[in-house]
Design a protein that fits this description.
Rossmann fold
Length: 290
C-alpha cells in the first residue's frame, strides 16, 4: 500500500512558475520551502531551480531569493549566513538550491570549502543527472551508459559518489531524498534545519525531456529508482553514522531503465552490468549501515 502523504502546504511556493508540466523539481521545491518556513533566504546558482523561481521582481518562492554564479553557490550562501549572524539573525535558515552541474562539477570547490569550514547552511542539490536546461549534456552525476547531448552513444564512466565525498568532510548531515517519498523528504528537511553546520540534501529529479520519460511519469520513475536500489534513501551523520531509510529492494534494475529513452540502446549484457553495479553498491551501503 502507498503511504499517506502527511505534508501540509503553507503557501511558501506559488503557482504560475515555469517548470515543465509534470516536473517533480517543482514538487520537491514546494515541500522543501514549506517545510523550512518563512524565516529563510535562498541562494540559487544557474540551474532549473533558477528558471523555476524566476527573476526579480517575480518569484515563485515566498522567501528572499539571491541569484548567484554557477561556481559560487555554497560560497554565496556562506556569505549570506554570516551577514545574517552579524545582524543577530542566527536562526534564519540559508538554503542553497543548486543542480548537479553546480554541485558535482562547477560548484564542487565552493561546496567542499564550505563543508571544510562547516558553514551553517542547508545545501540542496536537485540531481537530474545532467545539464538539462542547456541541451542535456552529461555531468559527473550522469550514470554509466546514459545517453546525453554530449554522450550520444552512452556515458562511459560511472556517476560520481557525492555522498561519500561529502562524508569525508565529516559534516553534520547528508541525506538522499526522492519526490516519490515526500514524508521522508519532509522529515529530512526538518532534521537538517534543526542542526548547526553544513547540511546537504541530494534529491533525485527525473528530467522529463532529458531522460525521455512521459509527462505524468516522473514520480513513478523516481519511485522505481528507490525500489530497484539505483537511488537508495539513506542519511549520514557526522560523516560516519550511516542509516538506510528504505532497507529492501523489490524490483530489478531493468524496470527502471525501461521507463527512459536515455537507456533504450542498452543490450541485455549492458543491463546485466548495470544490475551488478547496483548490487555491489547496495551491499556496500548495507555494510556501512552495519
Amino acid at each position: 500500500m502507498m503511504e499517506t502523504i502527511e505534508y501540509t502546504d503553507r503557501g511558501q511556493f506559488f503557482s504560475g512558475h515555469v517548470a515543465c508540466a509534470g516536473c517533480v523539481e517543482a514538487l520537491s521545491l514546494r515541500v522543501i520551502l514549506n517545510t523550512v518556513g518563512k524565516d529563510a533566504v535562498a541562494v540559487v546558482p544557474p540551474s532549473c531551480t533558477a528558471v523555476i523561481c524566476g527573476s526579480y521582481p517575480h518569484s515563485a518562492a515566498n522567501i528572499p531569493v539571491f541569484h548567484t554564479t554557477l561556481e559560487s553557490g555554497a560560497a554565496s550562501a556562506s556569505g549570506v549566513k554570516r551577514a545574517l549572524v552579524a545582524q543577530g539573525k542566527n536562526d534564519t535558515t540559508v538554503l542553497c538550491l543548486a543542480g548537479d552541474g553546480g554541485t558535482y562539477d562547477i560548484g564542487l570547490q565552493a561546496l567542499s570549502s564550505a563543508a571544510e569550514r562547516n558553514e551553517d547552511i542547508l545545501y540542496v542539490c536537485f540531481d537530474n543527472e545532467g545539464y538539462m536546461n542547456t541541451g542535456g549534456q552529461k555531468s559527473s552525476s550522469t550514470p554509466l551508459s546514459a545517453v546525453t547531448g554530449s554522450t550520444p552513444a552512452g556515458k562511459t564512466t560511472r556517476k560520481k559518489n557525492m555522498v561519500e565525498i561529502l562524508a569525508a568532510h565529516r559534516i553534520p548531515y547528508i541525506a538522499t531524498a526522492s519526490p516519490s517519498d515526500l514524508n521522508d523528504m519532509e522529515a529530512k528537511v526538518k532534521k537538517a534545519k534543526g542542526l548547526r553546520g553544513t547540511k546537504v540534501l541530494i534529491v533525485l529529479i527525473p528530467c522529463l525531456p532529458g531522460w525521455g520519460v512521459a509527462d505524468n511519469s516522473a514520480v513513478k520513475v523516481a519511485r522505481l529508482a528507490v525500489e530497484t536500489g539505483v537511488f537508495p534513501l539513506f542519511e549520514v551523520e557526522g560523516g560516519i553514522d550511516y542509516k538506510m531509510n528504505v532497507t529492501t529492494r523489490s524490483r530489478p534494475v531493468q524496470e527502471y531503465l525501461s521507463t527512459q529513452k536515455r537507456y533504450k540502446h542498452l543490450t541485455a549484457e549492458n543491463i546485466a552490468t548495470l544490475q551488478a553495479d547496483v548490487d555491489d553498491d547496495w551491499q556496500r551501503l548495507v555494510n556501512r549501515c552495519g
